[in-house]
Structures
1.
Amino acid sequence: MTVPPANGTIFQQGLVLWGRGGFYRILLEDGPVDCRLRGKLKRRHTQMVAAETDGVCAGDAVRVSLFPQGENEYNGMVEAVLPRKNFLPRPRIANIDISVAVLAARDPACDLLLLDKILLVAAHYGINAAICFNKADLDGGDLPALVALYRDLGFAAVAVSAKTGQGLDELKLMLRDKVSVLAGPSGVGKSSLLNWLLPELMAPVGDISARLHRGRHTTRHVSLLSLPAGGLTADSPGFSLLDLPADLTAERLPLLYPEFSRYAGDCRFLGCRHRNEPGCAVKENVRQGRINAGRYERYLRLAGELK
């Protein structure tokens, strides 16, 4: 740890790895330190959490004061949260480079509507998104076409198996030297993937509810973990439902679909929403098979929700 000045207090900038019960694990230049929030910041955080807004969360860059308690032992206080470059409300994490949507090829069934929502939310908040289809060993033959579809749209997509090792080196490369988050429903194998990426972690792995055909939650909090190859990745609690952002409008929604942007300039009307408008080039390219019909149908469903 840095040698303290005469008054004993050290100020450093760090990164929030996780928060539990009023304590925050902060990664500093010399290693992690557990800190509490300074009184004023704590009151503000409590009010924001009560209002279901963001508050202090994993990924935040913070300014910390450290008070020596003994040789290489310190008590710390989080003095301030520095401005964020981005924020993802679910899972709650700040300042990430890439959001990786994790779904299973089977068991539970691949929820493509949820996948599209995860990608849309990331795009809305200006965050790069990628896709990891786990349990490729259970695939019935549909997965290669699905991977090809999303790759053609410009997303990094990989089919992996935490059981057989398929594609895991590609996933490792995807995450290297980045701050990332694994996001998706319970039971798709996020914890199993982390056990492969971080063998020393041995995160608890849940089974699948036979009655509900969905996973049992094994992760309770968002926690950033250091990857051996460089970078940080976050496991997160699974979710089967995901709301679109409250400030996402029906006008903005089609702008978040990369395949629409290829043809929207040929639509008859400026600002075409590609639903019921005549002369819509997007609808015509759906009919001709240039735009995936299933993804377009899911777009109509989400546009209906926003309306």
2.
Amino acid sequence: MISVGNLHWGGTGKTPLTAAIAAHLRDRGLAVCILSRGYAGKGRGARVVSVGGGPLLGPKVAGDEPVLLAGELPGVAVVVGADRWHAGQQALQRLEPAPDLFVLDDGFSHLALRRDLNLVAFPAADPFGGGRLPLGGRLREPLASIARASAVLLTGLTSEDSEAGAALAEALRPYSFAGPGFSSMTVPGRPRWIGGGHDDPPAGLPVFLVSGIARPDSFTAAVRNLGYEIAGELRFPDHHSYPPPSLQQIATAWKASGAAAVLTTSKDRVKLLGRLSAPLAELPVRAEPEEAFWKWLDGEVDLLRRPCF
């Protein structure tokens, strides 16, 4: 089992990193299953979100991030459940083929499960989260917890920096971290219309931004850097469910802005799809860890899969 997690309260780029790792392992020929708690989902027990062919459940039942991962990762199963040991057992019994390897999404603090590799994401915009737990800081665990990590990744970089990850690892040595550090870029794609059938929204188009993520500034900056005119913006709390009053607020603000479309994040798209009268587009993003990380990960996975005699 490979855990991908963080010490921060959101906004670390963990979901794109999880997607990149799961896709890499799938492309190596492994049967991969992502285990998630399904944060904010209302379903109970273990739920199979995807057997590798797209989401079978919606975000209200499964949570927004599992549905997003299920839609972006053909050939990768996604299973959610608050009891992730039970969810994993269900995956082994119900999925065909049975998983060769589990990727535990947001698993660093989920100590009930043994993991073989513990990967921890640190956001480049705020790597140490103030160095404290709330209220004085933005960490969910003390920095000393990093001692149980196998490797750390500095995420959200906008350009290649092969030294940044190593520098992060060195900065964590006083906290008894002994593993390697790597860097990972977050790369925005071109905005695309939801529903397809049209050319991508052209640069210069006036758009109205809607997001419910931990770090909306990064979304706004990415849209601006791609050359779009930002006619207005609404920011909601992370994992916002968009009840009817929020939808009405978006519709009213979009019309008043004169924008040609509502532009949102991929995580928000799964909750807004089919619920707005405005033309809807999304900004996809992907994580691109440095090549040294993939070499390290492949070596570790090979060791895990080596037969024991």
3.
Amino acid sequence: MDIRIIEKTKNTMRFILSDVDVAVANSLRRAILSEVPTFAIDDVVIIENTSVLFDEIIAHRLGLIPLTTDLDTYSYSEECETEDPEVLSKCQVTLTLEKEAIDDYVMVYSGDLISEDPNVRPVYDDIPIVKLAPKQRLVLEAYARLGIGRIHAKWQPVSTVSYKYMPLLNVNYEKCNFCGKCVEVCPKNILDIKDNALVITDILECTLCMSCQEVCPENAISVEWDDKTFIFSLESTGALPVEKIPDLAAEAIIKQCENLLSQIREIKAVKEADSGGS
């Protein structure tokens, strides 16, 4: 297995995963979505709400606000799903909000949430929650907990993650007459004719639509793909650094494999014991 990062910004990344089959690639994608822990608001106590929105609607909006996640201080386990206060102290953070409109309309934003831990706070301060009319007031306590996307989508660390096969575009220059029809039909504009040659400007942008192959009158172009190499694209919600997410997903896969092997060994040991006893 080999991973090569080809593009990275603050919250987006593209990398090439090679020397694996599609099962491994899909396992990584699914683990990113369902096994990487992040913080999200899970419980909300509404102390006062005279806004136009019901308590449940406000609680739902709060739950979908991405929160920065400190996995060095807090750690996720299935115990985080309990109500035991001692256990929750290791995977829970309290946020409070108090906002009132006096003489004019006031918009309540995610930045109005005050966290007891500055390392766990809304990623963005400008997410609207509710608009208060004059004399309306909102006071609440929210409890953010560590969780994983397998439990609820609000704990997913990415807004999107996808992969595609590495495209292979083959040109038979003996047949090609440089008519330019493939250049015109390409939706990604990755083909060009320069110096009497068909040039592929960016093979990574190819969507494997095969339009160039279908339109070529000389059958000079063939579109294939490498079924052992994949181009991954992911976008973090900002809860975790984008480069850390695949690492955590891979660790989760390894842990699950080790757990599976452990259970297989236990079953095998029980069967051997039963066979020996008989």
4.
Amino acid sequence: MIEITTSNSTNVNELLFAFGNLPAEVKVITMTTPTPPSFHQNKNGSHDAFTLIELLAVITIIGILAGLTLGAAGAVRRHGATSTAKAEVAALQAACDRYFADNSAYPVGTADPGTNTPAGATTLFTSLLGSENLTIAPTSKRYFEPKPAMVYTNVSPNFFIDPWGNAYGYNSDGTNAPLVWSTAGTTKGETNKWITSWPQM
């Protein structure tokens, strides 16, 4: 009995030809499947591993990409908050003008533009909404319909807040056009970064 072992099916006929015309019962052909090399196995059969420098390079690249992504996301959020605040300041100013058209006076508020306390903001809220709370039906004409996220409801009366969670500032003596502003999440003294209803110098 002749046993032929090969890992290549194309060699079978060649191997049989080499033995000549043998009876069928003595021909046994065994096909073997070559074992694939394991991951990171080199030609010598030994296993390679990542070097420390390769690992550090990959980690550094991942860190740089993550930093760029987070930085861009932060810039997009800041830009979105700024755009929202500008739109809300303009909307509050327009609501004050509608209030003036009906009452011949603006809501009176005495908030100091340097403190951003809600004193003037609560006056503005009650005057424009006709009630002290967003969920209470107005007792007078409503001049402004805020989004729920724009209203701080944990105290009564409520007041308007900007996208950074601070009270919108408001100041008017009732006769002159009111000042409406957002501190844009800045610390005290950075008035050049405020978002205001008056022209910035």
